[in-house]
Amino acid sequence: MSNAEHYFTIDRTASAEFKDRGSRFLAYVAPVTTVESCKMQLQELKKEHPKAVHHCFAYRLGTDGLQFRVNDDGEPSGSAGRPILGQIDSRGLTNTQVVVVRYFGGTLLGVPGLINAYKSATSMALQLIPVIQKPIELSYQLQFDYTRMNEVMMIVKQYGCSVQSQETQLFCMLNIGIPKARLDEVLYRLNDLHTVAVNRVA
After folding, report:
1. How would you label 70-103 residue by residue, b for 16+ Cβ within 10 Å and e otherwise?
2. pLDDT per position as a tens digit, 29-43
3. Which DSSP symbol is given to 166?
4. pLDDT tens, 156-200?
5. Please, which residues have CB within 8 angstroms of residue 180's CB and are 6 or more apart in sequence?
6. Which of 1, 75, 105, 197 has its CA 20 to 30 A from that of 165?
7. Which domains does the chain have, with CATH numbers?
8. Distance CA 129, CA 29 (A)
9. What is the pTM (predicted TM-score) of this model?
10. Residue 1, class by beta-carbon neighbours within 10 Å (0-12 exposed, 13-18 middle, 19+ buried)?
């Protein structure tokens, strides 16, 4: 596991168009967190552009950025997905997918031309979105009597933890993400509330 405390991503969509010798390359950038959300974005674009000849894409997922995929969708190997991923990586982004939809213009561009087109379309779309920095979080489950709710929520807010899910009856169960950089402080504060059970979630 890397000792980084933050990762870089995007929080909105964007699109841009690059043209070369009659071919149109439409790049669509989207924030994604799961392979499922990547597939959904791709399916939507295939529905939106049924006449396009190629729907090439690349994504990188996870706060460690270790999960990625490239797809040339029928273009010559290495001419589409790789250049798209290269642009995502040159900005140091993760949880990001770019799909480039190509409408063929009748003239073959050759592999160097294709690499340039997919790279340019992706770069243009990515330039439209600000890169945001997010804390890497570790997931913990807290269990406590509801009378402790205010104290627990105060700590959660104070240290910028995210609430991933909660069940509140007489006994509360809260799944939270604790920023890696603040982990020791948060655990110390929570353990101070003796009746709160704190467990790491794998």
Report:
1. bbbbebeeebbbbbbbbbbeeeebbbbbbbbbbb
2. 999 999 999 999 999
3. E
4. 999 999 999 999 887 899 999 999 999 999 999 999 998 899 999
5. 5, 135, 136, 137, 138
6. 1
7. 6-133 (3.30.230.30), 136-200 (3.30.70.240)
8. 9
9. 0.84
10. exposed
